[in-house]
Design a protein that fits this description.
single chain, about 120 residues, mainly beta, Immunoglobulin-like, four-stranded antiparallel sheet, three-stranded antiparallel sheet, about 5% helix
Length: about 120
């Protein structure tokens, strides 16, 4: 697995932390995007409708690579520290993604794909 992470800016706009990672589905080795959020933000009232949010990812020129609707709050799985969602994506699109944001929330959630150091 190649792990990458990005963090939200946390600026005056009420930004929250979003982590974006490249991953593969165990057993199948299918590529996926793993998007995680801080636990304190992973509550129903963070989403405008309380049930789902948008996930949008762009490349380095801000061209849309991925747009999906995902369930909210994100899932908590054993052995993973943060609530997250698994988003299937082609390996070509995964390689193009530079940043992602979660839409339909009461706080700004976005993060850049960057090498974890």
């Amino acid at each position: 697995m190649v792990a990458l992470a990005g963090g939200g800016d946390g600026d005056e706009g009420g930004g929250g932390r979003l982590t974006v990672e490249r991953s593969v589905v165990p057993g199948t080795q299918q590529p996926e995007l793993l998007v995680s959020v801080d636990k304190e933000l992973n509550v129903a009232n963070t989403a405008n409708d309380g049930r789902s949010v948008g996930l949008e990812c762009v490349d380095g020129q801000r061209r849309k690579v991925l747009s999906a609707r995902v369930e909210w709050p994100f899932i908590d799985e054993p052995n993973y520290p943060l609530p997250h969602t698994h988003q299937p994506v082609s390996s070509q699109d995964l390689a193009r993604i530079a940043s992602c944001r979660v839409t339909g929330t009461t706080v700004r959630l976005e993060g850049r794909m960057r090498l974890r150091g």
